[in-house]
Amino acid sequence: MIKKERPRIYSQFDINVILFFLSMIFFIPVVLVFTYIFEIDQLLNINTFMFWLIMTNFIIMVIGFFSLMIKKETLKRQVKPTYRAEFFYVILLFSFGLLGFIVLYDYMGGDRKYIANILVVVFVASVYALIYLGKKYFKFYYMKKK
Description:
Blueprint: H1 12-25, H2 27-37, H3 46-70, H4 72-76, H5 84-107, H6 115-136
Helix pairs in contact: 1-3, 1-5, 2-5, 5-6
């Protein structure tokens, strides 16, 4: 029997795991964007705030991991043809995360004249990651011809 090259179909559980861990990676940068917008860094010590933010992120990650493991069997049975809404959530997460990494660089005392250089590198890496994730997991093709 000839095996055809068929794209793998990912279950809702696989997509939720990707979304959850991306959310946990970008949780701190997204929160830092809002602290920068509302100038919370003027009111609080940013190092203490980031310590408690990391602890909160860790607690949410543990709770979310166990919640995903509890729902694993039901989510493994759910499949959608495309995960377009989930992919748009990833795009939104990446855009705020990109800004958050720049804010993190600024908070950690980085030289502001290099922010544009770092922004370009992080932007290129995130666009590559978005194209890869969209094509492989979310069945979202950028260059698809009609």
